Amino acid sequence: VRKFFTDSNLLFDEIWVLHPDPWPKARHEKRRLLNALFLKLLGTKLSKNGQIIIGTDHYEYFDWIVNETSKTALTASFPALSRIHTRYAEKNMAETDAPKYLILENQ
User: Fold this and answer.
1) Distance, CA of 54 to CA of 98 (rounded, Å)
2) Which positions ≥6 away from 72 have C-beta within 8 Å?
3) How far apart are CA 93 and CA 105, in angstroms?
4) What does 16-65 look like in DSSP terms, one character per residue?
5) How far, in Å, CA of 44 to CA of 39, rounded?
6) How far apart are CA 57 and CA 65, in angstroms?
7) Residue 61: phi, psi to the nearest 5?
8) Cα dihedral: 1, 77, 67, 56 (round 10)
9) pLDDT at position 94, please?
10) N or C: which end of the chain has fewer CB within 10 A?
11) Given this model, what pLDDT does residue 101 score?
12) Strand 100-106 to strand 12-18: parallel, antiparallel, or no bridges (unpaired)?
């Protein structure tokens, strides 16, 4: 995924990232996809008014992503989206009530 976005000249109106692997163990945090560096890269691939939409049912990972966003020029909003049905959402591995969603946009 990183290589695709790095090598691509495309701009996107929307980039959806639903239920990325949270790598919950502290020693595995470096493997998490949505770190500040990758979020910055995604931000360069957004068209004017483009959005990155992120959804996860792992609340600790959600908070970690919000913290990583603070290290970028992206602005975050927290919409009340209805549940987006995916196979991972149905499994709800984190056993939470509902996924949390985050929308990121360039300032």
Assistant:
1) 14
2) 36, 39, 40, 43, 104
3) 28
4) EEES-----SGGGGGG-S--HHHHHHHHHTEEEEEEEEEEES-HHHHHHH
5) 9
6) 12
7) -65, -40
8) -50
9) 55
10) C
11) 93
12) unpaired
Distance CA 83, CA 99 (A): 7
Which residue carries 């913290």 as its tokens?
67
The residues assigned a catalytic role are: 21
Distance of alpha carbon 10 from alpha carbon 16, whole angstroms: 15
Q: 104, 98, 76: which is closest to 86 by C-alpha?
A: 98
The two three-digit tokens of residue 53, written as one number: 């939409």
- pLDDT, mean of each 10-residue run, the chain (107 residues): 89 94 84 94 95 92 96 94 67 70 93
**Which residue, 35, 51, 47, is CA-closest to 1?**
35
